[in-house]
Amino acid sequence: MSITERILTGIKQTLETGDKIKIDLREASAITGSGSNIGGRNLFDSAFAALRFANPMRQVARQVVRSGQSAVQFVAKTGNATTQANPWGYTFTPDSGTPNTSTSIWQIPTRVITAQLPIRSAVLSDVNYLDETLVQDLFEEFGTQEANSMIINNDQAGSTTTTTGGVDGLRGLNMYTTAGASAYGTSGTAITNGIHSIATVSQAGAAIAYGDITDMARLFPAQYWSLPGTAWMMHPETIHNLRNLGTGVTIRQFAEIGDSDGGAVVYIFGFPVIPNPYMQTVGNGNFSVYLANWTNFVTIADVEEMNVQAFEQTTPGFITLYAEKRLVSTVRNPFAGIRLVGV
């Protein structure tokens, strides 16, 4: 409410009731001049503006909710039910032959991310919308941890990726087996099952080249080209390198034409490009680019219960906000994605 509105409201109230009305103008610094600590109190803006990049995988990956399980099991049909001498018509004999239908299963334990946020008690009454912004900030932090783990974590060896969870973290995309053609991993409920093979294109030289991208597009299965959710995903530095392809008077391979859908490396060959700062950059054996139909390629399963609890006076003058979130992520269909590995 402005100063004028406060005064008018106060006058109206005293005329109607005859009471003496006190109009609070302490925040009106212009009454006695401007400057810090002159004419009013400090105004606290909404707290904890998010400074992290939320998990880009959640923009396109398939997301499902599961309630309370300690593990999530995934099933895929890997055989072809129509593989017969002649599948047309009705000339078949029931209960004979080998229909070649089989399934692959794998099971992944749910993983937990925890956070502790100490809050100075004195700030609780001063900061606007503190509760909402604290929760928003926690979700941003969870998104950061998710994104790192979903890309680079190795859930088979705790010593190699301890900062992203190790054996307590998610199964990162980069730890799936490199292969010339995609394939489902071994079937079973052990933690070593379900490590699929992902078709991988090797970068031609030390620097990324236009041909690397065209090769990926050529090898990406055509059945996914026109489906919603098909997109490139790469590190912003990789996007920068692609924009710089071509030097001097050479026409750049990825030209900036100024349209909303025609920015340089905003779309490549009709597929949108999603910047993901948690992915690796080009070179040194890094998986720097993925092209996938992400709704088929990756599934994120969130446990629907999330705990948020405040503990008072854990330290004098502070309240500690504790939160935990549980989830699983996996490659659901290895045939729906392809990647580029550096040299």
Strand order of the largest sheet: 5-6-14-10-7-9-8
**Uncertain ranges:** none
- Give the percentage of residues in beta strands: 25-35%
End-to-end C-alpha gap: 62 Å
Overall mean pLDDT stands at 82
Structural class: alpha/beta
Record field, number of beta strands: 14
Radius of gyration: 28 Å
The percent range for helix content is: 10-25%
Shape: globular
**Biggest beta sheet attributes:** 7 strands, mixed
Tell me the number of helical segments per DSSP (H or I, 4 or more residues long): 5
* Secondary-structure element string: HEEEEHEEHEHEEEHEEEE
Q: What can you tell me about this protein's structure?
A:
The protein is 17% helix and 27% strand. It has helices at residues 3-17, 130-152, 210-219, 236-243, 294-297; strands at residues 62-66, 71-77, 103-109, 111-120, 177-179, 197-202, 230-234, 267-268, 271-275, 287-293, 298-303, 307-315, 318-331, 337-341. It has a 7-stranded mixed β-sheet. A hairpin with a 2-residue loop joins strand 12 (307-315) and strand 13 (318-331). 28% of the residues are buried. The model has no long low-confidence stretch (mean pLDDT 82).
